[in-house]
Amino acid sequence: MIQSRQPASRILFVCTGNICRSPTAHALLQQKAQAMGLWLLVDSAGISDEEAGRPMDARSARELVRRGHAPLAHRARQIKTADFLAFDHLIGMTRVHCASMARLREQAGRRFPGRSLGEVGLMLDWLPGQPRGQDVPDPWYGGPADFVRAFELIDEAVDALLAQLQA
Prior knowledge:
This protein is 41% helix and 13% strand. The chain has helices at 21-36, 58-66, 83-86, 95-111, 144-166; strands at residues 9-15, 40-46, 89-92, 119-122. The protein has a 4-stranded parallel β-sheet, sandwiched between helices.
């Protein structure tokens, strides 16, 4: 008899359009967990549908490559209520993303009564010893330094998330 193996955790990262911050977090967590032998189900989505179907932003992909990581073969998608059934943790890059997800989670609760729903959290709240409620700034309208800063914050939070998942 073959037993199906369940992932240790199921995580969805969420940003605005799903082309910069959330796919960066997705790629980092997926690759780091794999290197550690930890099986996670990882995906990403956007609050907005304006970028749906588009690949990862080239500037974010370049920063991943510059840091020794592979960019995702990714197509942006919008978050949906069913994601609250499919994922244990839905992690927003900003408080605005989390507020939007909280409203969607309420809709999911009405649509799927009695079902266990994933928890909404803020990306940088995974960092121990840091003030809660801090946003990962959107690098979209910025220059290369903004993409570097967003990457660094996401990378640090991904490491903290991995440490907590292993504990």
